[in-house]
């Protein structure tokens, strides 16, 4: 193995096999195909097994990364998977969607001189391979798996990654957890937001949830916290703690003229129709979708990439992403940005929308854009975009998708007296424990931080679950 003076492996990371770009734009199958056993063992052998591993510090749920990678290097998938599941309830999901470049891989020591270990790809391999063996039965049937205590009842509201983490952590320690979800399907954004071609629903999300069911987690769908039941009702039913993980699902708009024209959608509606409503299967599924020819997407994050790539797969002739800053500032995962470009999505950088134009029937025909430039760095070191005087132009478009962020849904918040919100309208919590202003009520994920990432939501779930355990079952 090539090494530098300090013994660091300089081998390049094993590439991820993918569907070729020209094929995948015509289908909704998963883009990244996953490592083979040989790939995984070769990549795992690049890990230096650091005594003080920086990668673990970079992981919000503290996966024991060197340990699971060492098991994979020996081909022992089962013990790799068990190590992952000790701290991460959704390893197959995280292996696919976490922004590893900012988390564990960003901290990996090999990154200083070469390429970090492909921790996410290895996590995905371990989880997929173990789940394909249908070995979850074995996992949950292990002798050390505690019996569930029916009196240690905890409720989670919302079924996104924050709540699923609370459910996984506490149920594996003998708590009786019930997850209440407003929609008819479980998984939160993992199901209604992130498209099938990045995160297959039946193969991955449903299997992760099935593993939680085997840990006796109960799921109740079509249940709207703050409407169907209140938090007080849950305590009256004997729950000892309640975790709020309702996400931040209300879309933000641009607040510019023409936003009501036919053909302008929030990314939330567009992606929910396609993913949850299976609109890509219309007319076999009865959710229609608006198919654009010249599509414009506004925003620079994962949501914008997903909307743009979805539009391509639905047959758009051209798809542009309009973003106020440059490519370097785009907050999307690097892999998603690269995949989008490979597939033919074009970036309209340093441009901001001023208004939409329509025809006599009220249908979208164009967007007016303002050319921007980056100014001097502000106190945070970030260069803010500012308009270039007189540089205004029109871009023809018949479908616009707005992906510029979300805000909290007020239903549960308004129905819960005594719940303190921060000045942005999200739930205020104790950072260390996730406890809200109401004793016994916890919150975490996007409803606390605003739109963030799966792994940060899971980290918050884990902190809250630890505190719930410590409070309800103090160490003897
Ligand atoms: C299109 C898209 C792509 C993304 N891509 C990535 C990515 O690649 N990597 C990444 O790390 N992050 C990504 N994210 C962000 C990530 O998905 C979120 O940060 C994460 O899902 C937040 O988890 P959560 O548990 O807080 O809430 P959510 O996943 O939003 O789940 C909240 C759940 O609560 C339910 N709910 C809401 N109100 C109520 C109520 N009153 N009663 C009962 N249930 C309720 C909702 O229906 C929902 O199911 C993406 C987000 C979107 C929208
Ligand atoms: S920092 Fe990188 S090389 Fe070191 S243990 Fe973690 S993954 Fe392996």
TrEMBL record:
Molecular function terms from GO: glutamate synthase (NADPH) activity; iron-sulfur cluster binding
Keywords for this protein: Oxidoreductase
Residue ranges of domain Dihydroprymidine dehydrogenase in the record: 25-132
EC number: 1.4.1.13
A Pfam cross-reference name: Pyr_redox_2
Domain (FAD/NAD(P)-binding) ranges: 153-461
Matching InterPro entries: DPD_II (IPR028261), FAD/NAD-bd_sf (IPR036188), FAD/NAD-binding_dom (IPR023753), Helical_ferredxn (IPR009051), SudA-like (IPR006004)
Protein's recorded name: Glutamate synthase, small subunit
Organism: Nitratidesulfovibrio vulgaris (strain ATCC 29579 / DSM 644 / CCUG 34227 / NCIMB 8303 / VKM B-1760 / Hildenborough) (Desulfovibrio vulgaris)
Gene name of the encoded protein: gltA
